[in-house]
Amino acid sequence: MQGLEATYHIESTPDQIGARAEALAIEQSIEMPPSAVRQPEVLREVLAQVVSIQEAEKGYYRVVLRFAGQTTAFETAGLLNVLFGNCALQEDVELVDLNLPSELLSAFAGPRFGIVGLRQLTQVHDRPLTCTALKPQGLSPTQLAELARTFALGGIDIVKDDHGLTNQPYAPFAERVPIIQKAIAEANAQTGGHTLYAPMLTGGPKTLLERLQTAKQAGVQVVLVAPMLLGLPAFAELVQDLKMAVLAHPAFAGHRIAPPLMLGKLFRLLGADATIFPNYGGRFAYSTETCMNLAQAARVPWGHLRPTLPVPAGGMTVERVEEMVGFYGTDSMLLIGGNLLAAGDSLLERTQAFVQKVAASVGKI
Amino acid sequence: MQGLEATYHIESTPDQIGARAEALAIEQSIEMPPSAVRQPEVLREVLAQVVSIQEAEKGYYRVVLRFAGQTTAFETAGLLNVLFGNCALQEDVELVDLNLPSELLSAFAGPRFGIVGLRQLTQVHDRPLTCTALKPQGLSPTQLAELARTFALGGIDIVKDDHGLTNQPYAPFAERVPIIQKAIAEANAQTGGHTLYAPMLTGGPKTLLERLQTAKQAGVQVVLVAPMLLGLPAFAELVQDLKMAVLAHPAFAGHRIAPPLMLGKLFRLLGADATIFPNYGGRFAYSTETCMNLAQAARVPWGHLRPTLPVPAGGMTVERVEEMVGFYGTDSMLLIGGNLLAAGDSLLERTQAFVQKVAASVGKI
C-alpha cells in the first residue's frame, strides 16, 4: 500500500534535525527503541520513514514522514494518533500538511452537502452566501428569536447561534431552537426567502442525540458544530447519518496544527459542509496567506470529497464586504455578527445593506 | 452565584495588557462590542470581569477573569467554550488554571474509582502501582497476548495497550481484547496475582459502544482512553455509567493549556481515575515543577472529587524507579514500556526487577 505522508514543521539545529526527525518517526509509529523490536517485519512495514528534511526558515525544518496506512486503522482516532498523538505534547513540532493514499482517503466520505448542497438549501447560486450570529450570551429564547426574525427579514442566508450557546438556563436548547426556527419560518413566509437557522449542537453522545431530535422535530436543516470541542471521532460519526448540513466552528481548535490543515483539510475530510475561520485583519492574527490556503484546502479538488464552503469571520464589517468577496470569490460565505448588532434600532437596515453589498459585489470580482 | 475564575498567561506589553485582558473577557463571554449590547443586565451579569493582572515574567502577564457560572450551562462543552473556545485560536494566550464555584463543581462527579478504587482492583495498598504497555504497533493479537502473559507473570499491576492500538487490521479490537484478557487471567491464576488489562478504547459513539460491549464480555475492568482524542464531552459522558476504571492517556492533548490544568485538574474533573503524563527527563520537555504540579492537581483534596492516580511515563527506565518513587510518593503508578521490552529474551526478569524495585523503594521514601 502507498503510504500516508505527513509534513511537520520542526524547530531544531542543522546538526540535530536528522536525529530529531528519526525520533519523531519512531514516536508516531512504533513508540519504542527500534533496537528493541524483535520482529523484522515491524521495522520494515510499521516503523515510519523520514522521506525528506528541508530547511524552512532559520532554525526550522520541513520534515515529511511516511506512515503505513494500516496503522491508522482507517478511522478518525487512529489517523489523529498517528499524525499528532504523542507529538502534540512536544512543543518543537507543528503538523502542517498530510497526504492520504487513495486506500485511506476512500475510508472518509467527507462533506455530505458541501458547497453545492448548501447552495441548494439556501437557493443561492450566483453569489457568496451571507451568515450572521445570534448573540450576546444571556438573551432569552424570545429575544434571540426576535433577532433571528429581523436577520431573516433582512435576507441573511444562514442565521447561526453564537457558538457559546449550548444549553444555558437562560436559553435552553429545547426551548430556544423551536422558537427561533419558527420566527425564521414566519419571516421566510413573509419575504419568500430561504433563510436557514443553524443551532449550536454539542454534548456527549446521549445529549447530542436528544438535541438532534429536538432540532429535527423543529425542522432544522443546518447545524453548527465545533468539531474539536465535540471530539473529531464523534464529529465524523455524527455527520454519517445526519441528513443536515454541518457548519463547522473553530472553537477549541488550538493545537499546533496549521489552520489550513486543521480547519480546511481535516474538517473537510471528516465531513464539514462549511468551515468558519478567523478572517485576516480581525481580532485574530491569521495572515492573508493562511486564510487563502485554508479556503483553498476547503474547496480545491480532492479525490471524491465534496468541496467545503469557506466562511471567514471574526471582527468583520459591512464596509469590508467588497474586499472580502474579491479575496475569497463567489464560493464563500461571509459571517458578520457584532458589526450588524452594533446598528441597534437600525438592525434591519444594516442587515439589508450587508446582503445587498454581497449581491452587488459579484459583478465586480 | 459565585463566579468561575480562570487564569491566563498572556504575552503583552505594560501599556497594552489592560486592553488585551478586557478584549479576552469580551471574547470569552459576550463576543461582541459591549457598546452594542442593548440589555444592561447582560453587561452586568454575563460579561466576564477582569479580576487581576500581574506581571509574571518579562513580557508575560497572569490575568484572572471571572465568568458567570451559568454561561457554562453546567456541562463540559459549555465549560470548555467559556475557558478556551475562541481564544484557543489566539497564540498569545495560555490557559493555566481555573477555580470552580461549588455550584459548578457539583455538576461534575469526577473519578468513579480514583486512587482508592484502583488500589481495590489491583489489591495494592502500600506501594506505588506498576504499569507497562503492549507494543510495538504491528504485532498480532497472539503476539500481544504473549507479551501480556509475561508482564502478568512478572507481577505488573496494569498492562495497557499502546495508545496507538485502536482497531488495526493486524490486531482488531474484537479479536485482540479477549485473547489478551485471557492470557492475563491465566497468568493470574498461576501466580495468584491481580494484574489488570487496560485496552485502548476510542472511536465515535457507536464504535465506542460496540468496543465497550466486547471489553465487558471479555471481563475487562480498566480501559485506556485518550480524552482529547475522544472529545472531552464524550469522555465525561462515557465514564458516567461505565463501571470500569479509566486510565487517561495524554495523546492529542496539545493545546496551549498548562499540563497541570489539562492532564491533572480537567481530566480529573471529567472522571479520569488515573492520568498518564510525560515524566521529566524523558522524551518530552516537561520540567520537574510541571510534573509535580500535575501530580498534585490530580490528587490534592478538591471538593467532593476523588483523587486521580498520577502515572508518569515516557522514556522511563527501571534504573530510575527509586528516584521516581521518591519524587512522586506512594500514591502514583510508574509506567515503563520500551525499557522493559528492550530486555528481549529477559523480559520476564526485567519485569520482575521493575516490580521488586517499586516494592523495595517504599521503605526508602
Automatic annotation (TrEMBL), chains A, B:
- Does Lipid metabolism appear among the keywords? no
User: PANTHER family attached here?
Assistant: RIBULOSE BISPHOSPHATE CARBOXYLASE (PTHR42704), RIBULOSE BISPHOSPHATE CARBOXYLASE LARGE CHAIN (PTHR42704:SF17)
Enumerate the Pfam families for this protein: RuBisCO_large (PF00016)
EC number(s) given by UniProt: 5.3.2.5
| Classification of source organism | Bacteria, Thermotogati, Deinococcota, Deinococci, Thermales
InterPro entries recorded: RuBisCO, RuBisCO_lsu_C, RuBisCO_lsu_C_sf, RuBisCO_lsu_N_sf
**Signal peptide limits:** none
Q: Which residues form the Ribulose bisphosphate carboxylase large subunit C-terminal domain?
A: 114-339
Q: Which UniProt keywords apply?
A: Isomerase
Q: Which gene encodes it?
A: mtnW
**Name under which the protein is recorded:** 2,3-diketo-5-methylthiopentyl-1-phosphate enolase
Q: Which GO terms describe its molecular function?
A: 2,3-diketo-5-methylthiopentyl-1-phosphate enolase activity
